[in-house]
Amino acid sequence: MDKYAMERARGCMTAAGMFFQQGAEDISQTIELGLRTTDEPETIYETCIKRSTANKSVLAMASLIIYFLVRDGVKVKKACMSAWKVADKFKDPIIQSISSALTAAEKPKSRGKLVAGFLTSNDLKDKLSLAIYLNVAIVEDSFHARMVELTKQPDNETRIMGAAFAGAVYGLKEVNAESKLKKA
Best exposed site among 44, 60, 61, 72 by fewest CB in 10 Å? Predict the structure, then answer.
C-alpha cells in the first residue's frame, strides 16, 4: 500500500456520502469492507458472500473494486480485472457484469445495447455495471466529469457506487474541490 491510500480511502467515503440516502446501508457496508486493505481480497469476498442480502455477489464485487482502488492506487479497469480474478476463483457468475461494463466502455458497436440494458434494469448487477462503465468510459480524466455523469443517473445505488469508485481513484483533495464547486 502506498502513502496515498488513506487519501483515496477518505475520497471514496466522502464521494459516496455525497449521494447517500436511507436504504443504502448495504452499499455503505460494502464500502466499509472494501476499505479493509489489511485483509486479503478472498477474505473480503467470503465476508460479503456470507451476508443475508440477496445481492451478495454485487456487494462482493463492489467491495473488491474499492479494495484494489484504495490499496493499489490503480484505475477502475485494472481494479475490475483484479476483482474479477478473485471472483473467478469462487466461480461467481457476477464476472459477467464486469465483462459487460468493460465491453460497453471499450467497444462502440456493443455499447448502445449494453448501456440501454443497464439503464432500464432494476437489477443491482446492472447498476454495478453502469457504475463501472461510467468510470471507465468517460474520456475526460477528472473527478468532476465523473460526478457530472453520475448526477444524471436515476438510481441512487449507481450514483453511490460510481462516486465511491471515482473518489477512491481521485482521493479526498479532488472530492473536496468538487463539493466546494457545488456550494458556489
Answer: 72
DSSP state of 137: H
Measured CA angle at 22 (ends 17, 24), to 5 deg: 70
CA 44, 27, 151, 4 torsion-angle sign: negative
What are 69's three cell numbers? 482502488
The count of residues in the chain is: 184
Predicted confidence (pLDDT) per residue in 76-112, tens digit: 999 999 999 999 999 999 999 999 999 999 998 999 9
Q: What one-letter code names the amino acid at 139?
A: V
Question: CA of 153: how far to CAs of 32, 76, 89, 134, in Å?
Answer: 23, 19, 32, 10
Cell numbers linked to 131 = 457504475
d(C-alpha 34, C-alpha 116), whole Å: 28
